[in-house]
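Internal ticket #5521
Category: modeling
Description: The requester needs a full-assembly model to guide mutagenesis choices. All entity lines are attached below as received. Residue total reported by intake: 414.
Assigned to: D.W.
Attached entities:
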Amino acid sequence: MDQRFSSQLFERAVDEFSKLPGIGRKTALRLVLHQLRLDVQNVDSLCSALSDLRHNVRYCRVCHNISDSEVCDICANPERDASQICVVENIQDVMAIEATTQFHGLYHVLGGVISPLDGIGPSDLEIQSLVDRVAEGHVGEVILALSSTMEGDTTNFYIYRKLSGFSNLKLTVLARGLSVNDELQYTDEVTLGRSIANRVLFDAGPR
Amino acid sequence: MDQRFSSQLFERAVDEFSKLPGIGRKTALRLVLHQLRLDVQNVDSLCSALSDLRHNVRYCRVCHNISDSEVCDICANPERDASQICVVENIQDVMAIEATTQFHGLYHVLGGVISPLDGIGPSDLEIQSLVDRVAEGHVGEVILALSSTMEGDTTNFYIYRKLSGFSNLKLTVLARGLSVNDELQYTDEVTLGRSIANRVLFDAGPR
C-alpha cells in the first residue's frame, strides 16, 4: 500500500522509521503518531540520545567493546580479574555474559569469527591485538566464548595455534552445555552462566 | 533483566528506544545496535526527520489535518470537491479513507469523539469550527465517518442537532457495512471504500 500523507514531514518520518529492522510501514506509522503526541522535550531527548550515540560512542582501545572513553568501564575497573580474558564475537555477547554475573575477568571482542565464505579472514578480526595482550605477560587464562558453530570452532582453533607458544597460559572453552549451532547471544542466562562455570581446557583434537 | 552496558551513551539510547510503544528492551537493543552499524548520515537523517516533524508539523487551519503549511494539501487542492465534507475522528482516519481513493471531497478532523467517561465534551472537539465551515454556505453534504461505537453514535447525533438548522444540507453516515465496535482505522480498504460509496441519509431515530 503506497499511502500518501498530507504532510511531507510526516511522510519523511514514517519513511525513516520503516527503514529500521523489523519495523514495517504500519508500525512506523504508529511510532510517528506517538511522537506527534509526545512533548517536544521527549522527542528531542530521543533524537539527541541517538545522535550522541552514533557520533560519540567509541571502542575500547584494549578490549574493543563499546565505550564512552578510550578504555571501557570493564577494563578500567580495578576489581575485575585482569588475569582472565574472555574472547567473544561481538558486543552483544559481552552483554549476555555480563548479565549472567558469573564472570569477573576482562573481555576481548573479536568483531566476528573467521568465515571464508563471507570473506572474513583472521586479519579482519582483533586476533593480533589479543596475542599482543597475552604477550604482555599478565594473563593466566584465555576463555574462548565463541558460538559453537563451524566458524566459531575454526576461530577457536586458529586462536589456539596463535597462543600455543605461551607457556603457563591456560586456554579454556565454554562447557558444551550449548547445543550445536546455538547463537551465543540468544542463549538463556542459566545455561550460559553454567557453561562459564564449567569451562574446560581447550582440546584441539587429533591432528 | 536490568542489563548494564559498558557505555552510558549506549544505555541512554536503549532507554529512549524502549520508551516507544510496542518496543521492549530486547527490540530496543537490536534497534540501537543497528544504528551503530549505519553510516552517520543515515542516523542523522532519522534524527532530523523526527525532530523536524515534531518541531515543524502544523495542523490545517481549515480541516485540522496534519499539514506542512497553514492549509493542508487536501484543502488547497482545487480538484477536490469542496461541497463535501467528511467528518472523521483523527488523522489516521483521513489516511485510511484516502487509501480507499473513493472520496474526493474535503475532511474535517474532530480530534476525538464525545466521551463523558473520558471527560471529552463537545467543546473539546472541533465541532464549532465544522458548524462555521457549513455556515459559509458552500457545503452541500456532510458525511459523518466516525467509528460505529457508542461514542461515535453520540457524536453523530450531536453534530446532527448542531447542523439541523441548515436547509439544503445533506447529512449522511457511512453505510453500516462496518460491524459494531469496529475501529475505523483498522477496517480493510474494500469494506471502507464500499461504505463510503453506499453512504445513506442520516436518521436520528425516534425521539
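Resolution: model delivered.
Comment from assignee: Chain A touches chain B through 60 residues (CB under 8 Å).
Ticket closed.
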